[in-house]
Design brief:
This protein is of the alpha/beta class. It has one domain: Alpha-Beta Barrel (TIM Barrel), CATH 3.20.20. 33% of the residues lie in helices and 23% in strands. The chain is built from eight helices and eleven strands. Strands 1, 2, 3, 6, 7, 8, 9, 10 and 11 form a nine-stranded mixed β-sheet that branches. Strands 4-5 form a two-stranded antiparallel sheet. The longest helix is centred in the middle third of the chain and has 12 residues. The radius of gyration is 17 Å and the shape is globular. The two termini are 13 Å apart. The relative contact order is 0.15.
């Protein structure tokens, strides 16, 4: 059965990458929650998609160049990686997307702390557009499953996946079609498109072996 992955929690139903968004995703029965991770200047892993944070007053702060307290002063609902994980609390697995060029050390440290408290590879997978990031994670946490995230190239996606020994691939839905989905399924890949908000299209593709769909609106799939 096709799985439903909540994009940045439930981006279409609540502010993205917030505790409220994660709660909304769980409320609507997602099989997995996806969120984005960046690291602050002082080494705190936070949940943030864009490299820059924009506050209501129009100020822009670069996450990597700012300390955590500076960012919190402008965005009080900024969530740390550990806060997000403990809020979701193993109710569903989490797809941790580490953005390119983000240092993996603080994320690895946080994951190891969670594992010391009972979290396991069943509770999380790590994905990235960056092969370097995934190689770092594989080296530091070889027991965790990895997800290759690709913009458009199926050839590059499978090349990357083979080198990481993973079968999970997320790709931009605009480049997918039924023949490609079927071919990936026949080769054992677990393919998920982002961001697919059409249950009708997802159900059509599921007939060809789509593993999951990543959506802003998990309520549409109930």
């Amino acid at each position: 059965m096709m799985k439903i992955i909540g994009h940045r929690g439930a981006k279409g139903l609540a502010p993205e990458n917030t505790l409220v968004s994660f709660d909304k995703a769980i409320e609507h029965g997602v099989d997995e929650i996806e969120f984005d991770v960046r690291v602050t200047k002082d080494g705190i892993a936070v949940i943030q998609h864009d490299p820059d944070l924009h506050d209501p007053a129009g100020n822009k702060l670069n996450v990597a160049a700012s300390n955590y307290d500076e960012l919190m002063a402008h965005k009080p609902d900024l969530v740390t990686f550990e806060e997000a994980m403990r809020s979701i609390n193993r109710l569903v697995p989490v797809l941790i997307e580490i953005k390119p060029k983000v240092p993996t050390g603080p994320v690895v440290k946080a994951i190891k702390l969670l594992e010391a408290d009972g979290w396991s590879g069943e509770n999380m997978v790590v994905g990235s557009f960056s092969q370097a990031v995934l190689i770092d994670i594989k080296s530091a946490l070889p027991h965790l499953s990895l997800v290759v995230i690709e913009s458009w190239s199926g050839v590059r996606a499978t090349w990357r996946a083979r080198r990481l020994n993973t079968k999970r691939v997320n790709m931009n839905q605009r480049w997918l079609w039924s023949g490609f989905i079927k071919a990936m399924y026949n080769r054992g890949y677990k393919l998920a498109p982002y961001t697919l908000n059409s249950p009708e299209k997802a159900k059509r593709w599921a007939k060809y072996g789509l593993y999951a769909t990543i959506t802003d609106y998990p309520d549409r799939y109930n």
